[in-house]
Amino acid sequence: MTINGDGLYLVAGLALLLGAVLPRLLRRYAVSAPIAFLGAGLLLGFAVDHHRLSPIAEPGLTKHLAELTILVALMGVGLAIDRPIGWRRWTVTWRLLLVAMPACIAAIAGVGWLLGLAPATALLLGAVLAPTDPVLASDVQVQGPTTGEGAEPEEDDEVRFALTSEAGLNDGLAFPFVYAAVFAATKGAVGGWAFEWFAWDLVGRTVIGVAVGVGVGWLLGKMTFDAPSRTFRLADAREPVLALAMTLGVYGLAQVLHGYGFVAVFVAALTLRAVERSHDFHAELHGFVEQLEHILTWGILLLLGVAITAGLLAPLTWAGAALGSLLVLVIRPVTAWISLARTPMRRSERWVTAAFGVRGVGSVFYLAYAGAGFRTDLPWLWATVGFTVVLSVVVHGVAATPLMRMLEDRRS
């Protein structure tokens, strides 16, 4: 039986109801909600016209849905972080971004090249799989802002902070490496484009993204909490739609100015917190964004499951499966473990932080964004990325609850 357009409303309603029940139902078990939604999508694929829902057939829809999901998640994690930004306070974050992430990209690209991929395709795969996910890693991230009178920034859980702050920034910082892969495929020898890439795509656009995030976040923060007129003081009016307005506005402005919008949105959320850190309106903003994020996440996981039923993984080769498995089980844990050497983290905290490099919606977005330039390898790339995301969802979803409980027991 194939569900028609009207029947999709029934499916959507049931999916939302399932999303409301699953987190409570699975709280005591080693099965995360993303695993359940992915499984539901696999089953749903037998009942809907899945050929129209393939990311290869609908790259535009895939890109925009993944893009919106990431944006909302970035605003959420930015609002959730209590710790003020700084070089020493964020040492673990800078290590993961500046050491572990480039090392992951280089390792995946190197192994892919040894397995017979063209250099540009190998680099694209490394860049696409580089960002950890702010969407699917909620079980191992900070749970929300600490607000209220006398609230102090949360400093205890270094693991949750490291994974949250890393995911908030590396979704945007993967962009330069994706561009490098596209340039390698279209512009030829590295010497012809390396300087332009470094000066503009790596440095210039990142600086624009940070500047837009700081500027707009500060202006909106002052308006929201300190505006002379109550009309513009949105914290008094309790208008949580500010979070969505800021997400879309900051992203749009950064993109118009040719900066990195993902970076701008995360930085804007951090800046809004910094303007008035303890106000309980932050909790309302975070709650609003979190609900929207859950709805978008459920939808994209269902669609991924449908695409797998439609044959997304059919072109998968042993090389693609090996690359995905190496990333999740070896490359990410080892590179992150090395990058976190000589930090205040305990040994067990380093291992858990290194292990939980969740791959997900960010990889889907980047492949939909850049895949048009790699048409020959596109089915294989989607199969490899899809396999890696599914593997990450299952492995990290099963391991999250027991490992985080283990860390909490050791601390107490």
UniProtKB/TrEMBL annotation:
Occurrences of domain Cation/H+ exchanger transmembrane (ranges): 16-405
Claim: Ubl conjugation is one of the keywords in the record: no
Domain of life: Bacteria
Membrane-crossing segments per the record: 6-22, 29-48, 68-85, 97-130, 173-195, 202-221, 241-274, 295-314, 320-340, 352-374, 380-403
GO BP annotations listed: proton transmembrane transport
Entry-linked InterPro entries: Cation/H_exchanger_TM, Na+/solute_symporter_sf
GO CC terms: plasma membrane
Main location: membrane
Organism: Kribbella sindirgiensis
Membrane topology: Multi-pass membrane protein
Pfam families: Na_H_Exchanger (PF00999)
Gene Ontology molecular function, alphabetical: antiporter activity
Subcellular location: Cell membrane
Keywords, alphabetical: Antiport, Cell membrane, Ion transport, Membrane, Transmembrane, Transmembrane helix, Transport
Name of the featured protein: Sodium:proton antiporter
